[in-house]
Amino acid sequence: MTSRIFLTGRPGIGKTTVVLETIKLLSRSGIRIGGMVSFEVRESGVRVGFRVKDISTGLEGWLAHVSFTSGPRIGRYRVSIEEFESVGVKAILDALNDDSIEVVVVDEIGPMELLSRRFRDTIYRLLDSNKNILGTIHYRCEDPLARRIRSMSGVEVLEVTFDNRNKLPSALYDRLSRSHHF
């Protein structure tokens, strides 16, 4: 049975932290994981941008930064679609195409990432695959892709809250490791 779990919740509530803790638990038990995580970058305590990281290779790239002078604008940030696609989208595609990868991580599906047509196409391919998925969806994202994920049968959408965020990694580990194919 395939697990498709997407986390949502307010910005800063700890979605990425839950994902990273779950990845640690899965990796320790020998489950191969691929895909991408995103994280904020701060300078002097002020958020200045977002980076993406390929879970398998450790390769990182920029998603968006306040000082970028080109690329689509989302709030104070300009998005580097090219760099995002060369690291983040490639990480998801590599995981999708590697039969040894059992869980594909997508952190996150949000307004910046959805500017990339290649990202959208890759997520549709992933959803049509038989891969286990652990993803995050931006809290207020009403994009058709996000709406489709929320309404798909076989997809579980969980809200990360202050009350559940410390318990979620072990619960997610239990669900995803049950889907582990020996």
Fraction in beta strands: 25-35%
Which spans of ≥5 residues are poorly predicted at pLDDT below 50?
Answer: none
For the biggest β-sheet, the strand order reads 5-6-4-3-2-7-8-1-9
What is the CATH superfamily? P-loop containing nucleotide triphosphate hydrolases
- Number of beta strands: 9
Could you describe the largest sheet, including whether it forms a barrel?
9 strands, mixed
Ends apart, CA distance between termini: 13 Å
Total number of domains: 1
CATH architectural designation: 3-Layer(aba) Sandwich
Assembly form of the protein:
single chain
The total of helices stands at: 5
CATH class: Alpha Beta
> CATH topology, anyone?
Rossmann fold
Classify the helix fraction into a percent range.
25-40%
Order of helices and strands: EHEEEEEHEHEHEH
Question: In angstroms, what is the radius of gyration?
Answer: 15 Å
Categorize the overall geometry: globular
Rounded average pLDDT: 96
Question: What are the salient characteristics of this protein?
Answer:
182 residues, Rossmann fold
Task: Describe this structure as you would to a colleague.
- α1 packs across α5 (168-178) and α2 (81-97) runs parallel beside α3.
- The longest helix has 17 residues, at 81-97.
- β2 and β3 form a beta hairpin.
- This protein starts with a strand and ends with a helix.
- The chain contains 5 helices and 9 strands.
- With 182 residues, it is α/β, with parallel strands linked by helices.
- A 9-stranded mixed β-sheet has the order 5-6-4-3-2-7-8-1-9, sandwiched between helices.
- It has one domain (4-39, 82-178): 3-Layer(aba) Sandwich (Rossmann fold).
- The radius of gyration is 15 Å and the shape is globular.
